[in-house]
UniProtKB/TrEMBL annotation:
Keywords: ATP-binding, Membrane, Nucleotide-binding, Transmembrane, Transmembrane helix, Transport
The protein's name: ATP-binding cassette, subfamily B
GO molecular function: ABC-type transporter activity; ATP binding; ATP hydrolysis activity
Record lineage: Archaea, Methanobacteriati, Methanobacteriota, Stenosarchaea group, Halobacteria
Topological relation to the membrane, as annotated: Multi-pass membrane protein
Transmembrane segments: 56-74, 94-114, 168-190, 196-216, 285-305
Amino acid sequence: MVAGVRNAAVDDPDEAESFASDGGSMWRLYATYGRENVGDAVLGAVMTLFARSTGLLPPLLLGLAIDAVLLGTRRYELPLVPGTWVPETAAGQVWFTAGVLVAAALASAVASWLQGYGWNHFAQNIQHALRVDAYEVLQRQDRAFFDDTRTGELLSVLNNDVNQLESFLTDGVSSTLRLVALVVGVGVVLATLNPWLALVSMTAVPLLAVFTFVFVRRVQPKYARMRGRVGELNARLENNVGGIEVIKTEHAEAYEVDRVREASRAYYDANWDAIRTRITFFPGLSLVSGLSFALTFVVGALWVLNGPPAFLSGTLSPGEFVAFMLYTQQFVWPLAQFGQIINSYQRAKASSERVDGLLRAERSVGERADALTLDAVAGRIDYEGVTFGYGESTALARGDDDGDDDVPRSPVLRDVSFDVEPGGTVGVVGPTGSGKSTLVKLLVRLYDPDDGVVRIDGHDVRDLSLASLRRAVGYVSQEPFLFYGTVRENIAYGTFDATDEEVRTAARRAAADEFVENLPDGYDTLVGERGVKLSSGQRQRLTLARTFLKDPAILVLDEATSHVDTETEALIRRSLDDFAADRTTVAIAHRLSTVKDADEILVLDGGRIVGRGTHAELLDADGLYANLWRVQAGDIEALPDSFFEEALARRAVLESDGGE
Ligand SMILES: Nc1ncnc2c1ncn2[C@@H]1O[C@H](COP(=O)(O)OP(=O)(O)OP(=O)(O)O)[C@@H](O)[C@H]1O
């Protein structure tokens, strides 16, 4: 049931990539995302072939001009051109040749433009669609996926890897076509001109093939490793920019520079390793090509001078020889370019596996095909025997590849059962780490329980559509989050069609209207990234306003007023009581006075409910709640020794294993 981003089986843990699919994904991605713009690809392909064939003309014309015009050893004849078009005089033939050359150059220029247009349009559209889709899939991942994956790495997939796929299409695929057209076209012309000499000039081909094969084998894992390192580096940088305040207040700049240096060095090393292989490969290819060119020259030149070499027959005119050498050059040098294509292919392949891995990442919190839409919500909540533990939910976090749920999950909630009647209020209290936030996260399905059921109006929340579930529940989390944007946008986030008046009313209820009006641009003030330009109490009030505006049937408040001062809390409480009066409310509070009037208070300790009842009942029971109440009343002397012993024991457990 646990989400699993499946990794390709890897022998070397160093190569265990965060996002990797089972390979073979690149062409599938291109096919899927290129379907709609296949016309552009066809235009690009046809124009590539056309541009290439116009490139075959100049050497042929040059050879003809040397023999027919300069040496006068053969007639001026061109295939497909009627003899009557060709001028009789030598000067006329020179101008005619020039005219054909210019026409070929013009045709080639137009074809190149169309080819560039076709390929680039095709590739840009794929890049755009792929990025948006990958983001959409990413956004649908469950909370556990984000717990285990670093943001920088995700950004690296959405940016670098998607771009790599685009650049292989524009450079690699079109170059491959050009190369194939060239090899076939030139090969045919060479074989027609002089088949034996053509064989000599092609000696390079098998050598180049072996060379390339070896290169691919060696460079492939190096590129995979390099992409992984880019992700790690991005993750580190992203983390540090986010935590800049702590870095500064802890004076940890030097420490962080060291850590960035280390991550950058790891990328450098991986990249350098790939670069070394690459820069050895290309000169090697050029050398083979150069040797083959020289060999063709020697054989061809001796043939023109002395007639055919032993055991060969036929003639070779100087014009044919020049044309031959020009073709050979056209043919052999670009073969070396083949290495670049393979190189770009390998990089794109490594990227495609990461993009595909992300696109195929499984989710544990999904929506059933026949999910129920909850229209009118009464607001009854019940938890029945709920047990839940956080596990390393993705294969990428575990570093294995079997995707099985084989990580022991220490329960953070154990056999929790309670219910709240429609319109009722339940308070949840307990020491830090006792599982209070986790309890409510199961209600909005940020996670699903390992055992037991959470129900709203009698329906298992897993049977409800996520849209209707999240519409029904308004969740004010412990950590208020604001997006970069205006105050108004942040309040209306989720209720995008709210009017200005509705936004104001919500702000007023959350005791935010006054401070907002005092901001430089009122509701149009930009709040900065994550709302950094506001105080945490102000941020909290805006997220409360957001929930008031949403007007949900069920209200979940996770320490919703923890960041505000007592006076503001009193103001918020007044409107909260009003707002919560006719809707079901689950309120988590450290400050027990906040939940004192709840219909029922649950006391959590170590993931279990260790007490429940009204405030008066719990005081009477004289358990953990009564002691916590004494602490908050400042009545420390009245606390029994056992309270301190238990508190110390709890702390030791929390610090040793994070909650188990
Ligand atoms: N995303 C997570 N991944 C793994 N463990 C987690 C995660 N979130 C919380 N925990 C662990 O689960 C336990 C319960 O956490 P929870 O946030 O529910 O406690 P809480 O009672 O709300 O605490 P507090 O009062 O400090 O907010 C803690 O031990 C915590 O370390």
